[in-house]
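In response to reviewer comment 3 from the previous cycle, which asked for concrete evidence that the modeling workflow produces usable outputs, we include below a single protein chain processed end to end. The sequence was submitted unchanged, and the resulting structure tokens are shown without manual editing.
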Amino acid sequence: MSSTIKILVVDDNPTILQLMCLTLEKCGEIVTATDGADALMKTIDTKPDLIISDYTMPVMDGRALFDKLRARKETQNIPFIFLASQKEIDERLRMVLEGVEDYFVKPFFARDLLQQARRITARLLQQRMEKQGGGAGIKGKLSEISLIDWMQTLEQGRKTCSLMLRAGGEVCTLYFSEGNVTHAVCGDLKGDPAVFKILAWVDGDWEVDFQKNSPEHTTTMSTQGLMMEGLRMMDEANRDAE
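The workflow returned the following structure tokens.
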């Protein structure tokens, strides 16, 4: 199954538009629009999986675009991220809740936008898999969606599945039950040490299968605990290397 997610990026500032395209290029197929009216037509035509839009634009602003898309059955459930000033968020956008994934205050950090886009992408891929009835699973690259992104998404969704990773000739697998990592194996390592090892991987491939699980229970921490401890160990190792 394809892991390609289509993202519509909307901004009338060509510099910001280019920055977002470069930031998000590994998250999926990028479609651009320079104002709300252009974005509306492209949404109807291409049906993106995620929309990231500036609030203040000529012709049609981001709020008008959001309202028009919510009024259409075919587009009413597309996740939406707004880019706006703090004043616009406080005075006009806080009341908009349903369908809005997040608000980013301009100027924003590109890495923060990328992190949120990756989390949404992981969730959308999970939903696509379940909607199409399982099968052989979905595949992708760690450079597109990291292990942390997947672990957070599967934990929040309380999913039962397997998450296999391949890198440098090694194959490692994590097994989830109701969102908790219950078993992990990576070569001779099992349980917590196996999780900590692959948390450091930034290159390689992943495959999620919602029809596979394992009766073994080798981990001693929650999914959140494993992530926090693994990241702490990575930070400590990086400090020692300096």
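Helices lie at 14-24, 36-46, 62-70, 86-93, 110-131, 147-156, 192-199, 223-241. We consider this sufficient to address the reviewer's concern, and the full set will be provided in the supplementary archive.
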